[in-house]
Design brief:
The chain is an alpha/beta fold. The chain is built from 17 helices and 18 strands. It folds into 3 domains: 134 residues, Alpha-helical ferredoxin (Fumarate Reductase Iron-sulfur Protein, Chain B, domain 2); 165 residues, 3-Layer(bba) Sandwich (FAD/NAD(P)-binding domain), CATH 3.50.50; 155 residues, FAD/NAD(P)-binding domain. The protein has a 5-stranded parallel β-sheet with strand order 7-6-5-8-18, sandwiched between helices. A 5-stranded parallel β-sheet has the order 9-17-10-11-12. Strand 10, helix 14 and strand 11 form a beta-alpha-beta unit. Helix 3 crosses helix 4, helix 13 packs across helix 14 and helix 14 packs parallel to helix 15.
Length: 492
């Protein structure tokens, strides 16, 4: 590395966020990159470590640490430090087909494994990644990579989220003719309708889709497999099919009052509001609005935070977020050593926005919903909650128990459920040999991406369960190469 004392000379300096009270007035991207001088200083903090845990994605203690797409992080950090931005882009694009997405929406498990965090704070890897690709687009370095020849073989990909796009990009570069089917009216999957636009503006997604179209990839929106076209029809027209359909069945909360009006799954809420924003900037009125309402978001993950941010922009009256976990410690505990992902207290952008308006963190920790209360019209009017504690049973499994006497009533006219997902929707392959496993994910032949239907592969959340955008991209890459090998063996 060019500056072996960079992590000593410079303190960590993260993204510049717009003022919370200002940014909730619009739907524009909330983060701004620091100056080039600061970025190069931050890149210089990358240590000359013998084993860079940052660039190898691993599962430790049930969490991801390091980069699942195997980004060559120390190499492009050093190039940025030296001002060699184009070379940094070339190095980054060797492993990551969509750094403009990961640089905005990834939770940065690479930073959890950064060796510099043993001395002070991790390198701002995610920010530098975004800076590299943003500069590459500004300078015109990102150009369509059109394959030199075609194999004459065709692949259908179902789903245009990160896994589907990644799979399409790799198969197209191998010379196959790739068509991506998307049931929504816009391409992008969760990048378009699952992640609010203040995290990834739609022009960022559309820009990449346009490049992929120029490279020869065909996109077919408004086409739901199993309805407008069957899986068998796609199999008959193509040499292979790849299912990148995500894990889209939302986990429900089976408590009294669940049938009441005003209780919605998080993704339904995010999707309908984002569509109205993109279609007409809400002029069409097709929204699920939190305006003037007491809102309760149930869940503690990224999707719950996205609901918080959206409700804040809709001028909710009040907002509470139920988090089933207790307040995390501010530093790593002995049971959460490096290089595990740090399980520490964090205030995300949504909570920061709510705190700026209401004067306090909106989260109610170690809290679970017990019952939804009704008004006279059959709509939700409140939520009864209680505090919980986590204990281990005789088998070492975590059990959450309600603490008697901690019940509380909260007013609510809008409740958003963001408590995870239970696998992919399966209607499209009911008449095939494709099955789901004990985790409700699409079953594959051991150690592969190949389903039990000949010539049909799967990748991303549909195969591994709801996970990170970086895992989806890597799954798409690996499934593409397995699919390619399958096609080429059939040709020989």
């Amino acid at each position: 590395m060019g500056n072996i004392t960079g992590f000593i000379d410079h303190q960590r300096s993260s993204l510049l966020y717009r003022d919370p009270l200002e940014r909730i007035k619009d739907w524009k991207e909330i983060a701004r990159l620091p100056s080039e001088k600061v970025l190069r200083e931050q890149a210089s903090r990358c240590m000359d470590c013998a084993v860079p845990f940052c660039q190898n994605g691993s599962e430790l203690a049930g969490m991801t640490t390091g980069c699942p797409v195997y980004n060559l992080i120390p190499e492009w950090n050093d190039l940025v430090y030296k001002g060699r931005w184009k070379e940094a882009y070339e190095r980054l694009s060797r492993t990551n087909p969509f750094p403009e997405f990961t640089g905005r929406a990834c939770p940065a498990p690479c930073e959890g494994g950064c060796v510099a965090s043993l001395a002070n704070d991790s390198v701002t890897i995610k920010n530098i990644e975004r800076a590299i690709i943003d500069k590459a687009f500004e300078e015109g370095w990102v150009q369509p990579q059109i394959p030199g020849q075609r194999t004459g073989k065709k692949v259908a990909i179902i789903g245009s989220g990160p896994a589907g796009l990644s799979c399409a990009a790799i198969l197209n570069q191998q010379g196959h003719t790739v068509t991506v089917y998307e049931r929504a009216d816009r391409v992008g999957g969760l990048l378009t309708y699952g992640i609010p636009k203040m995290k990834i503006e739609q022009n960022i997604v559309d820009r990449r889709i346009k490049l992929m179209q120029e490279e020869g990839i065909q996109f077919v929106p408004n086409m739901e497999v199993g309805k407008q076209i069957t899986l068998e029809q796609l199999r008959s027209k193509n040499d292979a099919v790849v299912l990148c359909i995500g894990s889209t069945r939302p986990r429900d909360l089976a408590i009294p009052g669940r049938e009441l009006g005003g209780i919605h799954f998080a993704m339904d809420y995010l999707h309908v509001n984002t569509k109205s924003l993109l279609d007409s900037h809400f002029a069409d009125g097709n929204v699920l609005s939190a305006e003037g309402k007491d809102v309760i978001v149930i869940g503690g993950g990224d999707t719950a935070t996205d609901c918080v941010s959206t409700a804040m922009r809709q001028n909710c009256k009040s907002l509470v977020q139920f988090d089933i976990y207790p307040v995390r410690p501010h530093e790593r505990t002995d049971g959460n050593p490096w290089p595990q992902y740090p399980v520490i207290h964090k205030v995300d952008t949504g909570q920061e926005e709510a705190a700026s308006v209401f004067g306090h963190d909106p989260r109610a920790f170690a809290t679970t919903a017990l019952e939804f209360m009704s008004d006279e019209n059959g709509n939700v009017a409140g939520v009864k909650s209680a505090n919980i504690k986590t204990v281990l049973n005789k088998k070492g499994k975590k059990i959450r128990e309600v603490i008697p006497g901690t019940e509380k009533m909260w007013p609510a006219q809008l409740v958003l459920l963001a408590i995870g997902f239970d696998g992919p929707e399966t209607d499209m392959f009911n008449d095939s040999h494709i099955t789901v496993n004990h985790r409700s994910n699409i079953a594959v032949k051991r150690g592969t991406y190949h389903t039990y239907e000949e010539g049909v592969f799967t990748a991303g959340d549909a195969r591994m369960g709801a996970s990170l955008i970086v895992w989806a991209i890597q799954e798409g890459k690996e499934a593409a190469m397995e699919c390619h090998d399958y096609i080429m063996r059939k040709m020989s």
